[in-house]
Amino acid sequence: MIIFLQYIFNFLLLVIAFIGMVRYKKLTIPFKILAFSMAVSFILSIGSKIVSIKYKNNAPVSHLETWTNYVFYALVYLFLFKNKHFKTFIRISIFLITAFTIFNGLFLQPFERIFPTNVEIVTGILFVIFSLILFKQMLQYPLQVNIIKQSVFWFNTAILFCYATMFLNLALTNYYSQHHLITIVYYFWLYVNMIFNLLLLVSILMDKKETLTSNATL
Amino acid sequence: MQHSNAGIQDDNIEVIILATCFFFAFLACSVIYFVVLYRNKQLKNKKEQDEREAVFRQELLQTQVEVQEQTFENVSQEIHDNITQVLSFVKLSLATVNNATESDRRLKINECRELLANTISDLRDLSKSLSFEHIASLGFAKTIGMEVDRMNKSDIIKATLEINGDPYPLGEQSELVLFRIFQETLNNALKHAGAKHFKILLEYHGDLFILSLEDDGAGFSPQVPDNKTGSGLRNMVNRATLIGGNATIDSKPGEGCRVTVKLNPVKPQFYSDGRPHPDRIS
After folding, report:
1. Which residues of A83-192 form beta strands (DSSP E)?
2. Interatomic CA distance for residues A119 and A13, integer angstroms
3. CA B166, CA B146: separation in Å to the nearest integer?
4. Strands B158-164, B197-204: pairing kind
5. Which of A42, A152, A155, B112 could form a disulfide with A17 if both were Cys (CB 3.0 to 4.6 A apart)?
6. How many CA atoms lie within 13 A of B231 on its CB side?
7. Contact A213/A172 with Cβ under 8 angstroms?
8. How large is the ipTM?
9. Helix (H) or strand (E) holding B14
């Protein structure tokens, strides 16, 4: 069952990456980055599967995946935010997270053995904050376009949903591992990721260059 | 003992399921609350924008009426001071033709014919200036050129026009407002300042248009202009803002007055809330 779900998940990533590439020219800069990140996610997901089959351990890919996710989503936020201070903070945070990922991989949670939960927690907190700030920005500068048709809304909802749920997942992990029910966590996280990627797909489908001037500024 | 442990585990699972459900319900409610809040904000903004648009339209309509009133006044004055005088002269001249010699008669008839031709030309110019569509069809620079010719012909004031750069369209509504500012400044120079010279400078740069109007009249202290001049000046500044421009008025008693309007024709012009207005030039 779990293998079947993994295939579905990878197929979903492939479909989103394909749609992202097909719509690439029609997308605004932040959603071009998002579309590109989906292609990278698909490649890393496949890579992770191959590595886990071959070496029975996909922790190194997981380190790389956590870092690339942060860089790509932070870049999307960089283009979506209007406030210069937030933009500067994101630029600096990319370097800090990169440094922290390397430090964590070398000294705290070795690349080859342990999953980078430290980095995930930090980036998770940052993403929840970013999404709340972006929701606030949307309220400050509302467009006359139905919110359901705004790519920014779907992207931000996806990020808030995924990274807020991550904390719940981490909280549950402890309990389930104690009761030898860790597969439940895996299922739970797989479903959350599927919903997350579906929301990103909606944002890629909704995005049009015309909305760039009002919502996303360089 | 085993039964008791199972009971604790069941209780824990119930708590976890409840917590998970609560978490997702909270997340969903937050997003729904945001959507409702956003919708309310959209409606509020739409209402405010509609109100601003209504004010803009009303102001534009008022500008059109004022341009028309001023034009009618100019036409009336032109007919009274120039055309009526010339036609009366022609009438008198023709009345004396019967008693004149053949050569004098021919001379007078030729003179009358020339005067009538000039009058026809003046009437044609006047008929053109009666509608403000000529601003759109001729363009702002040419319209101002025509006004300068009219002023110089009438000898009321000595006007000069200087154009820097290649004139380009500024948008119908912007040109109408600029023309009204020109009329208002000229009116002030003639009626209140008693100016003898009026200098107009149009500067067409790539991303900036500047209209400078300068007279050598009595001038005034910008802090204490009389009521009529004051409201006229305020109108000028407000209207320049409406088309996304910026008007400045420099004057000192005895040193004339200079009105400068700066407008970025490339940059989309916005209402005060940042929304582009319909007259933007792409």
Report:
1. none
2. 23
3. 18
4. parallel
5. A42
6. 2
7. no
8. 0.80
9. helix B2-78
Distance CA A86, CA B176 (A): 43
Closest by CA position to B20, among listed A126, A164, A124, A119: A164
Burial class (CB in 10 A: 0-12, 13-18, 19+), A107: exposed
| Cα→Cα distances B33→A163, A167, B42, Å | 19, 22, 14
| Residue A139 in contact with partner chain B when CB distance is under 8 A | yes
Which amino acid makes up residue B145? G
Whether chain B has a CB inside 8 Å of the CB on A185: the answer is: no
Distance CA A203, CA B170 (A): 39
Residue B41 touches partner A, C-beta closer than 8 Å: yes
DSSP state of B81: I
Asked if residues B147 and B213 have their Cβ atoms less than 8 Å apart, the reply is no
Number of neighbouring beta carbons within 10 Å of residue B21: 10
Neighbours of B228 (CB within 10 A): 12
Question: Mind giving me the DSSP string for A164-200?
Answer: HHHHHHHHHHHHHHHTT-HHHHHHHHHHHHHHHHHHH
Helix or strand (DSSP H, E) at A21: helix A2-22
B223 CB burial (10 A radius; 0-12, 13-18, 19+): exposed
Element (H, E) at B234: helix B227-242
Residues of A (145-164) whose Cβ lies below 8 Å from B: 147, 157, 160-161, 164
Task: Note the pLDDT tens digit of each residue in B43-89.
Answer: 998 888 888 888 888 877 777 777 777 777 777 877 877 788 888 88
Choose among B9, B23, B38: nearest Cβ to A138: B38
Name the residue facing A147 among B16, B19, B35 (closest C-beta): B35
Which DSSP symbol is given to B269? P
Instruction: Enter the pTM of the model.
Output: 0.66
How far from chain centre, in Å, is Cα B39?
35
Contacts of B42 by beta carbon, 8 Å cutoff, 6+ apart: A142, A143, A144, A147
B12 touches chain A (CB under 8 A): yes
